[in-house]
Amino acid sequence: MDLAYFKATLTHALPPVGLSPALEALWWDAKGDWAKAHHCVDHEESKDAARIHAYLHRKEGDQSNAGYWYGTAGVAPYRGSLEEEWGELAAARLE
Question: Does the pTM of the predicted model rise above 0.85?
Answer without folding.
Answer: yes
